[in-house]
Design goal:
single chain; 4 helices; flat
């Protein structure tokens, strides 16, 4: 015969954690974009290494370090995501917003800071990099704008106490 848990609080339902959902998924989004960058541009196309201002060996080492960092971020992010899901605290709208914001932030940071300010690498060598830079940074800005729009929508839905999946829809 089992007895109910005297410490269990049955009076409150699980509460979503929008801020944590946003931050956890921003970590995942940045890690996914780092993986896409590293796999596509470093490994498949061989356009550059993470650090190209030294020997090819140092460039390869820098790619390995980037890959290690992205994998650690993915693993940590998914453990935190699983914890949110387990506790039924995931705010789906904030999570999607965070994923797009994280991916866009990585891409814009890489394009502006790594490519232009620090010049640790370029997208491609032996060609005019201007169209590549504009495309890379513009794509990151599109991700940031989409994530920001989702965040505003999620905030409005939450403020109006409308579940984020139902915001803006008329009853049928």
């Amino acid at each position: 015969m089992s007895t109910p848990d005297p410490w269990a609080d049955t009076t409150t339902a699980p509460r979503p954690e929008p801020r944590r959902s946003l931050l956890v998924c921003a970590l995942i989004g940045a890690a996914v974009m780092a993986a896409v960058d590293e796999i596509v541009f470093h490994q498949v196309l061989h356009w550059h290494h993470f650090y190209d201002r030294s020997t090819p060996g140092v460039g390869l080492l820098s790619d390995g370090l980037l890959h290690t960092a992205e994998l650690l971020a993915l693993v940590a992010g998914f453990f935190l995501f699983a914890d949110l899901r387990r506790r039924r605290a995931l705010s789906t709208a904030h999570a999607w917003s965070g994923a797009l914001l994280g991916a866009g932030a990585f891409q814009v940071f890489d394009g502006v800071v790594d490519h232009k300010v620090l010049r640790v690498h370029q997208i491609r060598y032996g060609v005019d990099v201007t169209p590549y830079d504009w495309a890379w940074i513009a794509a990151g800005l599109v991700l940031l704008l989409a994530g920001g729009a989702l965040l505003v929508r999620a905030g409005r839905a939450r403020a109006g106490h409308v579940p984020s999946g139902r915001a803006g829809r008329r009853p049928s």
